[in-house]
């Protein structure tokens, strides 16, 4: 079987089992994303390891699936942004700032203390804390879309808090690395912050004034799916700019691109096209790939207690930290807990931070295994938590 046919076979398997697992998940009243995450774990090196089966000779197969998955998360965040409006997020700026701030401070502090308790050096303990401060909102966004709660007050506050969280964690990481490398200066920190401001200002200005005009120009032209293609191009450019210019996660750029297109008169057509493209191919691959990238077998006994500890801190830190921030901003306790639960998932952002720790020599193999396990567990528990918290209690019978 040629490498291309092996690639097609793997795609067929992933899409089939993802949709089947998602359907089975809905039968037990859970979001479909939960089934897709779990089946990815079964297909990965933890059990079947389908990328390395005996008849698979394509050594780049895993990397190809990973690249498709990365496109999937960008599309997912674009669709999430497309369902909102810039003014709606602006009205929730207070809760976004407070929940994002507390959602970083509390888990980072708890993680640092836990690392010291387990005998890590102060530097390694602080880095461990920063991995707990990250948030990947893609899982929560998909769950809220399924629950039809993305445009609720909690949903908009959650997305805004996740963007604020991303900015704060990147600032902390940049400052931390600068201090460790001995090159820290006030100007270095100011430059990190300035890059973010430049990206956000430029992307919003372009989206508010240029995008609507370009859409009006492209829409009437006899170009097949012209507006959809334009949206994809701008989404990719925003994602590149988020990382290259702003030093932020690419998903933040994709979310902002969707937010800008939400003002377009072509919004409904875009939603249909983007949703078909995303959920028909790329997004299921993204959720399954999370499991494909994790190997539970690497979790030895020596890392078990560290895994249990950081997972507990990861969940409690976000629930408590972001929840308290939302409460201070005027949310009810129920809404605050819902928002905090939506911030629990670490997803790909947590894995990115862990890889930085490995490259800088701040995380050893055992600690990396524990962090990866925490990322997996926090990602898997988020959908059922949100489902349970958003379920309305049944009225009592008289």
Q: How would you characterize this protein structure?
A:
By secondary structure, the protein is mainly α. The protein has one domain (73-274, 298-390): Na+/H+ antiporter like fold, CATH 1.20.1530.20. The protein is built from 16 helices and no strands. The longest helix has 33 residues, at 186-218. The chain is globular, with a radius of gyration of 21 Å. Mean pLDDT is 86; it is low at 394-398.
Note the topology:
Elements: H1 3-27, H2 32-43, H3 61-82, H4 86-91, H5 93-117, H6 122-133, H7 138-146, H8 153-180, H9 186-218, H10 226-244, H11 250-261, H12 267-292, H13 304-328, H14 333-342, H15 347-359, H16 365-390
Helix pairs in contact: 1-2, 1-12, 2-12, 2-16, 3-7, 3-11, 3-12, 5-6, 5-8, 5-13, 6-8, 6-15, 7-16, 8-9, 8-14, 9-10, 9-11, 10-11, 13-14, 13-16, 14-16, 15-16
């Amino acid at each position: 079987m040629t490498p291309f046919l092996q690639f097609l076979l793997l795609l067929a398997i992933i899409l089939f089992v993802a949709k089947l697992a998602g359907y089975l998940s809905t039968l037990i009243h859970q979001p479909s994303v939960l089934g897709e995450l779990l089946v990815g774990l079964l297909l990965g090196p933890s059990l079947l390891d389908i990328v390395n089966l005996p008849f698979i000779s394509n050594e780049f197969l895993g990397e190809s699936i990973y690249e498709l998955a990365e496109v999937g998360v960008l599309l997912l965040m674009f669709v999430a942004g497309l369902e909102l409006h810039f003014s709606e997020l602006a009205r929730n700026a207070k809760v976004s700032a407070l929940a994002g701030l507390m959602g970083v401070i509390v888990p980072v502090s708890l993680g640092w203390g836990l690392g010291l308790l387990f005998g890590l050096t102060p530097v390694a303990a602080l880095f461990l804390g920063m991995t707990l401060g990250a948030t990947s909102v893609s899982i929560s966004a998909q769950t809220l879309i399924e629950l039809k709660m993305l445009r609720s007050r909690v949903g908009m506050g959650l997305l805004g808090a996740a963007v604020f969280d991303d900015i704060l964690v990147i600032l902390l990481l940049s400052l931390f690395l600068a201090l460790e490398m001995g090159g820290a200066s006030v100007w270095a920190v100011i430059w990190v912050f300035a890059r973010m401001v430049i990206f956000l200002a430029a992307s919003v200005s372009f989206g508010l004034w240029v995008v609507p005009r370009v859409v009006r120009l492209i829409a009437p032209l006899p170009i097949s799916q012209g507006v959809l293609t334009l949206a994809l191009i701008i989404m990719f450019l925003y994602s590149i700019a988020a990382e290259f210019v702003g030093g932020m996660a690419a998903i933040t750029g994709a979310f902002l691109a969707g937010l800008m297109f939400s003002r377009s008169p072509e919004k409904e057509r875009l939603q249909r096209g983007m949703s078909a493209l995303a959920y028909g191919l790329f997004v299921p691959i993204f959720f399954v790939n999370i499991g494909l990238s994790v190997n539970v077998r690497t979790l030895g006994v020596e890392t078990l207690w560290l895994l249990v500890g950081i997972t507990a801190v990861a969940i409690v830190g976000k629930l408590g930290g972001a929840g308290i921030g939302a409460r201070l901003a005027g949310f009810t306790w129920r809404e605050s807990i819902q928002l905090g639960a939506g911030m629990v998932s670490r997803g790909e952002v947590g894995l990115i931070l862990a890889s930085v720790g490995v490259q800088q020599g701040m995380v050893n193999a055992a600690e990396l295994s524990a962090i990866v396990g925490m990322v997996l567990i926090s990602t898997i528990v988020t959908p059922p938590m949100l489902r349970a918290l958003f379920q309305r209690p049944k009225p009592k019978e008289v």
